[in-house]
Amino acid sequence: MTLRPETSGDAAGVEALLDHAFGPGRFVKVSERVREFARYRPDLSFCAVDAGQIVGVVRLWDIRIGATPALFLGPLAVHSGRRLDGLGGRLVQHAGEAADALGEGPILLVGDAPYFERFGYSAAATRGARLPGPVDPRRVLARGATDALEGPVRA
Ligand SMILES: CC(C)(COP(=O)(O)OP(=O)(O)OC[C@H]1O[C@@H](n2cnc3c(N)ncnc32)[C@H](O)[C@@H]1OP(=O)(O)O)[C@@H](O)C(=O)NCCC(=O)NCCS
User: Fold this and answer.
1) Best of 14, 84, 110 for a ligand 1 pocket test (most atoms within 8 Å of beta carbon)
2) Mind listing the pLDDT tens digit for each residue in 9-53?
3) What is the number of domains present in the chain?
4) What residues make up the domain containing 62?
5) Which of 60, 73, 128, 147 shows the greatest Cβ crowding within 10 Å of its Cβ?
6) Residue 67: CATH number of its domain
7) Which of 85, 115, 119 gets mutated to test ligand 1 (max ligand atoms within 8 A of its CB)?
8) Do residues 153 and 64 lie in contact, with contact meaning Cβ atoms separated by under 8 Å?
């Protein structure tokens, strides 16, 4: 199993994994609205590859929250046959550490707090962050925010 930055040659394998992990509902998520304007960061997006197969992916994107430069995490997906073995966690933490090494700002995501809290994400600073669509505020999570994140999530 190798974790390595995503490349353009991974596109088909990643699409297949995302379809498998999320189904058609993936395109109606508010996160997808963010990704329509956010700038993809290939240097901070990683694939888990095993025997030539992409079995996990995490992507990061440049955004702003109000005036604050930040990153947006997602999608995160692990193939159903490879779950519950720490791979999702490795991907989340690897992306976060790579962002930290570049001195990036806070990382925002929309996801389940019971999963992401173990990696330092919480809703404590995100009350004022406005996503481009309806979302349960308990699912708007961030890590690395020194102040409250305020304002619209935008490019
Ligand atoms: C979420 C996902 C990436 C986790 O991948 P993984 O490799 O199984 O994750 P890990 O092995 O690091 O962690 C597994 C642990 O997280 C827990 N967990 C997984 N999803 C969870 C969730 N939504 N809420 C709470 N806990 C969750 C598991 O029960 C397990 O707990 P344990 O350590 O007590 O046994 C994977 O289930 C997946 O691809 N799901 C479909 C896509 C998705 O929902 N992505 C996240 C969108 S925000």
Assistant:
1) 84
2) 999 999 999 999 999 889 999 999 999 999 999 999 999 999 999
3) 1
4) 2-154
5) 73
6) 3.40.630.30
7) 115
8) yes
